[in-house]
Write a structure and sequence with these properties.
mainly alpha; MetI-like fold; 72% helix
């Protein structure tokens, strides 16, 4: 068997290492493109005011001004904004986990005429953009007297979300049906099967739903802007906008507030990233 000249000059492991080096170089370059703005915000949050827009940019603050964080926390009731957002997030996550798991189990396991058509109809509601829904929702919640409360952002979660139902349904369909059939033979009800068999092995998918929901609530600006009026009820997104409009010159404080608003999302993702990645991969949602 003849040996090719390229194999002599560039052995297979050399070519493999070279290809891996190129891939890693491209990934690092792409990561830097996303990390550079974040690093600039973090650097600006520690700078005196005159250094933020300095040309050429000064990446390392000198002197480091940690007071920006304490000032950002006290200039506006930032702690209150964060607590309001956590309350809304906890209610919305609880509602979505309760409702979406039951609905997804029905679509994945139960037999009913027209089930697939109902599932397609449910998914079609995802094509409705939020501005189309916001006016009838406002009229409805105003009639109920819920305006300027957290209820318009919590109660709808107890009626399910199409995307979360789809994600959980895909995960439930990957669970062997023999487990459910065996439990039915033993006399278990569907609620018992869902609670004792399906949910314990669905932690990755549930974590993915919780993270997606938390991210959505934490970054949501439209719904709090429409339904919340008093400053004491503002969320993080509204608080940042209020902070910017009230203290537009205090850019260092605004950057510090932005970093504090970003921190909970980063912490939640890193604590649950293993379950999050498993939930996405087993649900069949891939890039």
């Amino acid at each position: 068997m003849k040996t090719r000249e390229t194999d002599v000059l560039f052995p297979a492991h050399w070519r493999r290492n070279l290809w891996n080096a190129i891939i890693y170089a491209l990934l690092i370059a792409g990561s830097l493109m996303f990390l550079l703005p974040l690093f600039w915000v973090f650097s600006s949050s520690l700078k005196p005011e005159y250094q933020i827009f300095k040309i050429p940019p000064q990446w390392i603050p000198n002197p480091i001004r940690w007071q920006n964080y304490s000032e950002a926390w006290t200039y506006v009731p930032f702690g209150r904004f964060m607590l309001n957002t956590l309350i809304i997030a906890a209610g919305a996550i609880t509602g979505n986990l309760l409702s979406c798991t039951i609905i997804a189990y029905g679509f994945a396991r139960l037999r009913a005429p027209g089930k697939n058509m109902l599932f397609i109809l449910m998914l079609s509601t995802m094509m409705l953009v939020e501005p189309v829904r916001i006016i009838p929702m406002y009229i409805e919640f105003k009639t109920l007297g819920w305006i300027d409360t957290f209820l318009p952002m919590i109660v709808p979660a107890f009626f399910g979300s199409p995307f979360y139902i789809f994600l959980l349904r895909q995960f439930f369909m990957n669970i062997p049906k023999d487990l459910s059939d065996a439990a039915l033979i033993d006399g278990a009800s569907h609620l018992q099967i869902l609670w004792r068999i399906i949910l314990p092995i669905s932690k990755p998918a549930l974590a993915a739903v919780a993270i997606f929901n938390f991210q959505g609530v934490w970054n949501d600006f439209l719904y709090p802007l429409v339904f919340l009026h008093r400053h004491t009820n503002f969320t993080i997104a509204l608080g940042l906008n209020f902070f910017r409009s009230s203290y537009s010159i205090q850019w260092g404080n605004l950057m510090a507030a932005s970093m504090m608003a970003l921190l909970p999302m980063v912490v939640v993702f890193f604590l649950a990233q293993r379950y999050f990645i498993e939930g996405i991969s087993f649900s069949g949602i891939k890039g």
